[in-house]
Structure formats: C-alpha cells, structure tokens
User: Which sequence fits this backbone?
C-alpha cells in the first residue's frame, strides 16, 4: 500500500472522522442511537458497561473475543473507495476489541488486502490471524501456506483445511507444522449443513483445536450433535453464515424488533441473529464478513452486554417461526 493511499485512509476514514461523516452513509439512519454519528468505540464499550465478552479456547485457555471478522467477498477487490472503507472496518474492529480474523487464499485477493491494510492501520500485531489451505497436493499446500504467511505476515495463529480439500494429506502436514511451532492451532472448516455427518466423524477422530461450520437461528442443526461434541472433545467453534448469506434480513426487513430483545441488550436484527449464535456456550467466536464500517459497528455490539438465556432463545425461535 503506497504512502499516498495510507494518507487517504487517514484523511477519509479515521475512526472519529468516519463516525462524524456517518450521516451520509447509506443505511446509517437505520442504526440505533448508540451507533449514530458521534458514537465511538470507547462510547460503545462504556454503554455496554464492560469490554467485549470473551471465551476460552478449550485446548489452551487463551481468551478469545466472541466477535470475529470474516473476509469472504467482503475483502476482495482493488477499488480505492472500497479499500478505504476496509481500512475503517479493520481499524474499528480492533478498537472494539476484536482479534479473530478469518480468511483464505480462495477469497480472491483478500489475503493481500488484509495483510497490507492491517500493517498500514497499525493493528497487525493485535490480530489472531486464521487462514486456510485447499490443495490435494502436499507440496502445493506447503507453497500455498507459505504464500499466505508472506501476504498476511507472521504469525499465522490458526491454519485450517478448507472444506475437506486434500483432507488426509494436509492434515498430516498441519499436524507436523503445529508440532514444529509454525502454527499454534490447526482445524477444519465447512459451510454447509450437508457436511455435518463428515464433520462429526472428523471431530471424533482428529486432534483438532478448532472447527468451523455454519450455524444460525435459521439453520440450528449444529445444536443437535456438533456443538455438544465440540464441548465434549474440547474443540473451539468458529461459526460462519450466522445471517444465512443475508437471507435472514430478507425475512425480518421492515418488521419491528421484538420488545423482549432489550432484555439481552439487543438493538437491531443483526444483533438478534448474532446474539442467538453467541448464546450457545459451545460457540467460541462468530465471523460475519463485511466491507461496510456501519455494519461492522452494528455487528460488533452483539459481543457486548447480556446474552439470551434458554427461555429467551426459545422466544427468539418462536419469533422467527412466525415470520
């Protein structure tokens, strides 16, 4: 990233500048008062009464902020205006206490953008960096992981096998690399409910630190077996697709948020979906992807304040079933 571009980021998308200019950003008027212009990360945390909620990684006890950041789709591209917005997203993410950032070499140029922006806005050392390998070949996988490290910078905290591709070949490589200290954690990912049977088998037989799968109030199947199994096996859980690729918002659009949502510090439908996911005790972190600073601010607030208890979770499911 050029010095000129970094100057543009600082000038146009500094944290306070962005929030003060927020009135001109599409959709900002739909946000709750705590996210309107003039709000800041520190103000959000003060309103919540404490820092972001954290959960331990079962294998080590390392504390993980529950709101992470995904990058599929969101961090791809070369457009200067988008890159400036991504700089604001990453800066605000770190300011609000987020650390877990998930990416993959299959997400276009996301790794390159993430590495450059993280260094430019000065947050790289604060990030828990997770990426993936997807190759049938051992040597190609090793080369792919080396390239990811070059783009993202060191350390890569978590390396995951992407959607079972080259599973057995890459699992041996990842296990060896973890033993050598090249990655602190290793894991396995998928994004479809149809993969749950195979995920369950792999969770039972492999010594993994993390597993990543889809889970939401619209697709709660992981509650049946995967989430209890993760707790039993001491595996940290990363949740993707908490909004079902946006279909959740298609259901709730133009509908009022239920009054009872205030009981667990929920101000928007995005927080409603995220707090449902985070209220399951086996979930370690969820990773909604966004390239919009105003959406990042909204999502992150789900990590603050109360979470729904079991009776409130039941009401949430009833609300969605009635839509």
Assistant:
């Amino acid at each position: 990233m050029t010095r000129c571009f970094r100057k543009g980021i600082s000038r146009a998308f500094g944290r306070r500048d962005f929030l003060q200019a927020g009135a001109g950003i599409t959709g900002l008027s739909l946000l709750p008062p705590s996210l309107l212009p003039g709000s800041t990360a520190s103000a959000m945390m003060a309103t919540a009464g404490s820092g972001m909620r954290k959960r331990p990684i079962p294998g080590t006890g390392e504390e993980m902020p529950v709101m992470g950041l995904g990058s599929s789709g969101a961090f791809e591209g070369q457009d200067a205006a988008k890159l400036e917005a991504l700089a604001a997203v990453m800066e605000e993410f770190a300011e609000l206490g987020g650390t877990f950032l998930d990416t993959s070499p299959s997400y276009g140029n996301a790794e390159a953008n993430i590495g450059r922006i993280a260094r430019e806005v000065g947050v790289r050392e604060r990030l828990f960096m997770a990426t993936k390998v997807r190759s049938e070949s051992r040597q190609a996988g090793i080369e792919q992981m080396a390239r990811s490290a070059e783009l993202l910078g060191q350390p890569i905290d978590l390396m995951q096998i992407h959607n079972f591709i080259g599973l057995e070949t890459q699992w041996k490589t990842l296990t060896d690399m973890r033993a050598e200290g090249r990655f602190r954690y290793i894991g396995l990912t998928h994004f479809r409910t149809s993969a749950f049977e195979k995920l369950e088998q792999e969770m039972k037989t492999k010594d993994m630190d993390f597993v990543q799968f889809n889970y939401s109030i619209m697709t709660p199947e992981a509650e049946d077996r995967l989430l209890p199994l993760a707790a039993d096996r001491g595996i940290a859980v990363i949740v993707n697709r908490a909004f079902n690729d946006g279909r959740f918002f298609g259901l709730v659009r133009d509908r009022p948020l239920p009054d009872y949502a205030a009981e667990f510090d929920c101000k928007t439908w995005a927080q409603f979906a995220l707090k449902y996911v985070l209220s399951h005790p086996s979930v370690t972190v969820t990773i909604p992807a966004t390239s919009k600073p105003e959406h990042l601010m909204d999502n992150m607030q789900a990590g603050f304040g109360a979470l729904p208890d079991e009776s409130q979770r039941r009401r949430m499911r009833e609300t969605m079933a009635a839509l």
Summary: The first strand starts at residue 54 and ends at 56. Residues 80-95 form the longest helix (16 residues). Confidence is low (pLDDT under 50) at residues 1-39. Strands lie at 54-56, 63-65, 100-102, 128-133, 158-162, 185-189, 210-214, 236-240, 285-286.
